[in-house]
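Follow-up to my earlier ticket, as requested here are the two runs.
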Amino acid sequence: MQDVVARLNVADWGWKTSWGKSASGGAVLEVQGHFLKDNAAAATLEILALPDGRTTIYVEGNRGKAMNALGGNIFNTGVKRFQKKALEKAQKILAGP
């Protein structure tokens, strides 16, 4: 798991990112989209180690802190799209050289 976290940590995501720890002992990466381009949506990636030595990543999209604070984006416009963009970016980072 540590090698996956290290690769994701040093990569250029193109969005603002912040790291934390999950309650289950994994690492949590929050990726915040651009206000206009991505509707300020965000995605949370939870990176966990499996008992067999593999690593899994769970991705969850949300409206983001900015939209929650403003009370905007009540229909979650663009959340699913940004969640997919974040997952594809993580796959590209992990598959790269």
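Run two:
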Amino acid sequence: MNQVLQWNGDSWICSNAGAGTVTLVNSGTGLTGGPITGTGTLSIAPNACASGNALTGLPFACAPFASLSANTFNGNQTVDGSLTVASNSYQPFLVQSSSTFGTWLELSNTSTGGHTWNILSAGGGNAEGAGNIGITDLTGRSTIWLEGNVNTSSVNATGTVGGAQGLFSGTGTFGVEGMTSNSGGAGVMGVSSTNFGVEGDSSAAAGIGVLGAETAASGTNYGVFGEVSSPNAIGVAGLSTSLNGGFGVIGKDQAGIETPETVQSAGVYGVHEGNSVTFSGLPTNAAGVWGDTSDGNQAGVLGTADNGNAIIAFNNSTDLGTITAYNFEASQQYTPVVGGASAYGGFCDILANGQIECNGSIVVNVATENFRRVQLYSVQSPEHWFEDFGSGTISDGLATVYLEPIFGQTVNTDMEYHVFLTPKGDCNGLYVSNETSTGFEVHELGGGRSNIAFDYRIVARRKGHESERLADVTDAPRAQFFKKGLGPNRKQISAPLLEPVHRVAQTTELPGSTKRSR
């Protein structure tokens, strides 16, 4: 009591300095309320100092804030307002924990439509793996994981990555890699209502624009799968715009000679409706291109062309056919194996019994002098006749002729056969007697005893076809072209023309196959 505050040069202290009368007190820097000549109150002025400065002790003055050392806070802290962190250090702001699950940083917006996001640096106890970082929308429950333990960063998103152009780039093996463990899901899915759902471009000399790989050892799986609903759409399309060569679509199968006999494989496999019974019944199968259908009215492989070769095949094998056809039908001898027909009206079938059946003629094209070519025509017969020719000599009017043994195995000489003789000298004439399965005798007429040469022609029925004569095949099956919808009267399908993508210069004409002329 009855004391006053007195400044001793270092601090304020209580003092019995005695009593007196205040005559004048002025308000200095940072104070208001003066001057006081009797009684009054001095106050600290608001905003007395500029930003970044504070009042010092007596005498009052404005001076910059002193630098603060590091601070440690225990428990939850709340900052009401903005928090600015400014530093020249490479690590101006550090959030750190030793949790094995990971270290979280939460960003929350409480306004209408706002979301709460967490950024997690995964620890060793996290199922996603230590060293990875996850960005999670707790409101919409979507997560993007960035893998930190591989050379090429991966994006694992359970939500949607969107924008005018979602661009991922890197210096590793893949620009984009998509993976899913869902049996009905897709690693990468692209959807567009106006253009490309997924586009992959590569400018590398041996690069790949889009790569689809399926590594499962069992099941029905797809490296690349395309699906459409429009009747004129294309599920998967390929286009080569190079005039120096190239392939729009290429498929490669690596099954080798050690592949099990039950394995079926192909570089490109096209199926209409479903797999045929023939497909499932084949033993060993491998092909560059394989076409199949379970639809009895359609084709497994179809080729079309305007003024060109619809299908062309090349081969350099010494023992395998360039084109081979096999029909498993064993009950109908007239079943066509290979058939050919034209709008002109001609047709020619190779039948299951090995016959070639045509409605034209068997013609040989033969070169003559002056570079002219002429046609020679085969002799036709109502029965299966094989013939052979030979020469002999009668001595004292008699000769015995033995049939050539190999020819004798192809014909049935146990039944009637025919021999035609032509004498090569003057005689009474010749006749045949004593016809057996191995030969016959030639005699001179009238008991003559001439010694002259002669020619003979023997005609015998083919073994196994002795009873066939003018077989009626009016109702026999014939290779079908137009009847089953593969002819020109079928509704034309207008498939869209493929155009180059926007990064490739458009060509005016693509090279076609070489036209073959005669």
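The only thing I checked on run two: The helical segments are 277-281, 405-410. Let me know what else you need.
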